[in-house]
Amino acid sequence: MPTDTRMALSHTAPAAGGPRPLGGKRTRARGRALRNPLPALVLALFLVFFVLPVLWLVLAATKTDDQLVHGNPLSFGSWHALRANWDALTGYQGDAIVLWLRNSAVYSFLALVITLCVAVPAGYALAMTEFRGRRTLLVATLVVMLMPNATLVVPLFLEVNAVHLIGSMWSIILPYSFYPFGVYLTYIYFSTALPKDLLAAAKLDGCSEFAAFRHIALPLAAPVVALVGFFSFVANWTNYYLPYVLLPESSQFPVQVGLGTLLDNVPQFNPTAGALAVERPELALATLLAITPVLVVFLFSQRFLVAGMLAGATKE
Amino acid sequence: MTAVTPNAGSAGARARRAPRRVRSGYAFVGSYVVLLLAFGIVPTVYAVYFAFTDTGARFVGLSNFATAARDFRYLPAIEHVALYLVFWLVSLVVFVVGLSLLLHRLAARGVNRALRFLYYLPGALAGAASVMVWLFLLDPAVSPAAFLLHALGYQTFGEVIAPGHLPVLFAMIAFWTGAGGWIVVMYGALNNISTDILEAARIDGAGAWQTARRIQIPLLRKWIVYMAILAFAGGTQLFVEPQLLSQASVGVAGRDYSLNQLSYDFAFQNNDVNTAAAISVELLLVGLIVAALFVARSGFFDAD
Fold it and tell me: Which pTM value belongs to this model?
């Protein structure tokens, strides 16, 4: 299935790193690499830059604050300290962290479902049907897709405020569900991967447009559904600005905004932090918990990622 | 290329089918259009409306824009964002292209794949999580890179986050979370360059450097522009990094640092939504112009 996506989506775009016959060039490259250690050094240096902080974060969650300051930065603390950090963290405002994680999950998941229900038919129609305004809609989608989503946050607040939806979880979920990139991906997928003859044949056999979508297009759409789902989930899970502006209550925060609340209560960063003091390793543990779902999704969908990131410009 | 009319010959059949298709087309896109209107168009119109009116809903021309521009934080915020963008775009272009070229020359497939994934890994920490990690990394008391910070002469967190350092630091955080994804893209684009061309260059005696400079980088140009444009538009929206940093330094560093923060503060600290909307409209305009130029000029998204 992932291979299908890749082939379809990277149609004329760069091949996604699959093996290519390089022949003699490969051995030559190896010979050169032996002579010149600089490239390997640079790659290794950047590996440290990208990975070391993540590794440090994982280890920090297993330490006491004292170990964090005085111990070797890249040493494992103890299971005991991890346990203590967990207890302290979940003790913060009575399981606030669990609530925030649950909120994140609810918002991201509901938005994901709506996004798929909206984006897949829309992408299909843009690719496979004719209707007045189709081109306008397509161009609007491209423009909105390229605009950073933070641009509209304050205006969105004004709008949501005007219809008295501030404080409702739908004030987050519905804007999340508007995902033009998903529509664009689906559009690209159907216009390159779905054979027109297949649809034409179905129509000749008296298949309605809906039936054609339901019985022909949809079963073929699994790869793009997974792809759109992936990007939508990651984008919504990591969004900070929108919920920060729109949600007034701590009990409604997603975990990203919750991290900010925890940060406010770390004495080393905020000397005025009161009785609810949060230790630094607890903040590290909270950060780790906050990224775990995305990390897991990353690990299991590497190939989707590649395909999706390359899909930006399949139509050259 | 997407038009569904398979053969223009059966004009009669087309005419007969067309009405139904039109209607079903609308049915398919209906819910999307509703969302596009509600969360794309309406907020835009709303922002424009607020930006040109006062609290009494009277038209006031550009006076909200003037209020914003007169604010003592306005010009510094533009300067901050501009400086941040310079560091962020330069580092992104130089290192992403450089690393992709190096990766592309790397013979060992497994190592290559693993490296691309590991470079991409910090992408999972986008948003607040990356700022948390970097708050620790930049605090000499707990940082695994404390020796580096000490070597550079910084003993305390306060010294590290001195105002002059912030553009570089924010660029570093953005690079840390964002570069890996672009490396994946560039690497893919490099793979797409025909091996014949590279072979021909090799036969003509071009070394790795010359091949990169004369063949690979020119062929990557379009992708580099794509990356720079998206990074530029995203960079103007700087918010979460300075916002959390200002929390972590009790307002010493990063408060009202970017235009988005300023807009936020106008709306929620000063209760002046009109000025807030004026700043939003300016940011919106930048995003819109960049996106529209790109769609129109690049040929990247030739819709039909």
Answer: 0.83
